[in-house]
Automatic annotation (TrEMBL):
Limits of the Transposase IS701-like DDE domain: 7-219
Organism phylogeny: Bacteria, Bacillati, Actinomycetota, Actinomycetes, Kitasatosporales
Alphabetized InterPro entries for the sequence: IS701-like, IS701-like_DDE_dom, RNaseH-like_sf
Organism: Streptomyces paludis
The name this protein goes by in its record: IS701 family transposase
Pfam families noted in UniProt: DDE_5
Length: 422
């Protein structure tokens, strides 16, 4: 809280922000305004709702504090910025940016919001450091009344996902985040403008692309599909490298790299699954010469963002919000990111300082380093609220059921009106 306290001009929202962070770090089943208020000992969710909607504070300024916090505790050589999106399945059509769209969270097209995020990963840890709510163009940009109801600023217009990704990357680089590499999946690797912008800034990238991507090899005039290039490779072109440690040990794949274009530092990187033979492709560029092992390391780091999403949703309630407004979404997500980077910083500072071999398991008598879930579990004992009285529990039970009754009556009236045409 010392890092962000100055972002709040009044003591009330500052106290609510502290209570909100403690709630996000607690064992509360659902970390929405109702449960966060109950966890904080409030008699109603009003203070939490005001914090996310009406209180005067700048979520982008707090986002800057989150980014600085991550760099201070996780920063080290070889840092990687990772761009990726995640979905938030929702009901109705009033939430900012919601529509039927594909989300990897559900693995199919769902009524959902999609956030584009930037993660920072180093050998010391990983955390989310920036966020943008994706605004679909078809159903939102041409509907001023709907935009106004959801609080979407007039300056926000439709842009494909690589555009906000680049804005976040540029902001991080301008803030002197030490990250010589950027990586991301096909949604970002297929965008030539994003790749060109990174090259202009002198930032290397390892970006996934589709097998149909065409590249020029041997300075040829005719581009060739990436999968065709891979099929022509001799057996000697493949080398076995680990893409980093996984839950069950090092993640070994077969890798090959092919020089493409006229730039000496531009490559097509191909990954082959040792069991299934499935191929994955990456376009790579670096301002200086690098080794295959370094490109493999950066490609493997991309999965860190998935671990960030999993930890943020399961540990600090990233997707537990029940807000519809543009401002409220960014405020909740920012506070959840702060809670997550706090846990990551504690884990990094608690990690053993002695060197360990990356491929050698620890002795069975040695515990693994403290993890984000374990740290949160320990903190709930230290930071947990005092014992709740039966009267307080009953008060919140009655409050919830009254609001549920109001909502049910509203739904019944709307359904009846639809049936009768009234």
């Amino acid at each position: 809280m010392a890092r962000i306290a100055g972002r709040f001009g009044r003591v009330e929202p500052r106290a609510s922000a502290r209570a909100c962070l403690l709630g996000l770090l607690s064992q509360a089943e659902r970390k929405n305004c109702w449960q966060l208020a109950e966890q904080a000992g409030h008699i109603r969710p009003g203070p939490m709702q005001r914090l996310l909607r009406y209180a005067r504070w700048d979520a982008d300024a707090v986002r800057d504090d989150v980014r600085t916090y991550a760099v201070d505790h996780l920063g080290s050589n070889g840092g990687v910025l990772i761009v990726d999106g995640t979905g938030f399945v929702k009901k109705g059509r009033a939430s900012a940016g919601v529509q039927r769209q594909y989300t990897g969270t559900a693995g199919r097209i769902e009524n959902s919001q999609v956030g584009v995020f930037l993660a920072y990963a180093t050998s010391r840890g990983r955390a989310l450091i920036d966020r943008r709510l994706y605004l679909p163009g078809q159903s939102w940009c041409s509907d001023p009344e709907r935009r106004r109801a959801a609080g979407i600023p007039e300056t926000v217009q439709f842009a494909t996902k690589p555009r906000p990704a680049w804005e976040m990357i540029a902001a991080a680089l301008d803030a002197v985040v030490q990250a010589p590499w950027v990586t991301g999946d096909e949604a970002y690797g297929q965008d030539p403008q994003l790749r060109a912008a990174l090259e202009t800034r002198g930032t290397g990238y390892v970006l996934a692309v589709a097998c149909s991507t065409r590249v020029r090899i041997n300075q040829g005039r005719t581009p060739v599909r990436a999968d065709t290039v891979a099929d022509r490779l001799p057996a000697t072109a493949w080398q076995r490298h680990s893409a980093g440690p996984g839950a069950k040990g090092p993640r070994y794949y077969d890798w090959a790299w092919i020089h493409i274009g006229t730039d000496n530092h531009r490559h097509l990187l191909v990954r082959r699954n040792r069991t299934s033979g499935e191929l994955a492709f990456y376009l790579c560029w670096s301002p200086t010469s690098v080794s295959l092992a370094e490109l493999v390391r950066v490609a493997g780091v991309r999965w860190s963002v998935e671990e960030c999403f999993q930890a943020a949703k399961s540990q600090v309630g990233l997707d537990h919000y029940q807000v519809r407004h543009w401002t409220s979404w960014h405020r909740h997500i920012t506070l959840a990111m702060l809670a997550l980077v706090f846990l990551a910083a504690v884990a990094a500072d608690a990690a053993p300082k002695r060197p360990t071999h990356p491929h050698r398991p620890a002795r069975s008598s040695e515990p693994i380093p403290l993890t984000v879930p374990e740290i949160r579990h320990l903190l709930t004992t230290v930071l947990g609220p005092p014992a709740v009285t039966a009267a307080r529990m009953l008060h919140w039970s009655i409050w919830r059921r009254r609001h549920q009754a109001t909502a049910r009556l509203s739904h019944y009236r709307r359904r009846a009106a639809d049936e009768t045409g009234g």
